[in-house]
Structure formats: structure tokens, C-alpha cells
Please model this.
Amino acid sequence: MPDVVKILPANNVMGHKPETKDINKLLDKLEQLLIDMEKGGNNGEMG
Amino acid sequence: MAKWANDTVMDISLNFLKNNTLKISVLTNTPANAAQAADTSTAISVGSLSTASFTLSDDSTYSGRKVTISSSTGLTVETTGKAAYIALFSTATANSTMTSTGLFYYTSCATQTVGSTANKITIDAFTITIQDPT
Model:
């Protein structure tokens, strides 16, 4: 029996764009991540 | 303000795919045309579809109309490589419902290495949705 390779195509939504509120949420998370990283870096230098 | 489109507006596009697509291929790179999508010297696998492979229905997740392309199983591996794209196309007119030939659609797939021509390919079912106006 040959091995079966399963191909998983992406589902598609034509014309779909992320909502602005979703992008804003992402930006907020990114900003928080950068703040956390900066804090972590400072702690590292101090330690 | 309210916006609305009759399902027929979306279905015309989806039925175009249903009535004109005879082939599906698994590719490493995006094809420029149907000939490239069909080229078994570069395509990982090429399968056949018919109108029965396409089912139109409401898409409640995105609010619109969708076509589900049924799975293809037992396809031969033509060329080994990294599967990354799926193409829908036709290279020849085969029946009276067809109005066009050409490359109609391609989408990505979860990247998968196909390492042997002894393998068989299964392409899972997938959907194409056209959303209602928003």
C-alpha cells in the first residue's frame, strides 16, 4: 500500500477584510508585547 | 444603511467555477495559466473534477454563498516536491455547460512534502465563499 499524502487546501473568503476593530486589537496586543519586551530587557540589564 | 444582494449574484460566479472546472492540481509554485497548472513535469499531482464535485450552499459563518469542492482521493504523484498551492482550471471544453477554459482559481494549502512518486495524494474538501455586501 502506498503512503497517502493528505493535502489540506485553505478555505477562501472572497472580499473578506479584517474589521478595523480587529486590527486595533492586534495593535494593542503588539504595543503591550513591545512594552513587556522592553521591561524584560531592562530587567535583564539590571540583573 | 442596509445593503443586500440576491444570492443569484454570488451564485453566478460560483456556478462559473462549477460548470467550467475540469481539473485540480497540486503545485509547488503559483501557476501563470492553465497550461502551467496542468504541466505534469512540474505539478505534483493533477486530478479531474466534474460539476458533481461542486456544491453551492449558504455560508452562515461569513454570511454569503459558498461552493464546497469535494475531496479528491487516490491521485497519482507526477513530481515530488513541496505542495503549497491548489489550482482549479480547464484546458479543453468537454461538455455543453462549459463556456470557458483557462486558469480559474488558485489557493494555498498547508505546506506538505511529497517525497515519492509511489505515494498517493488526497486533496481534502475546501470552500470558496463570496460574502454578502457589508
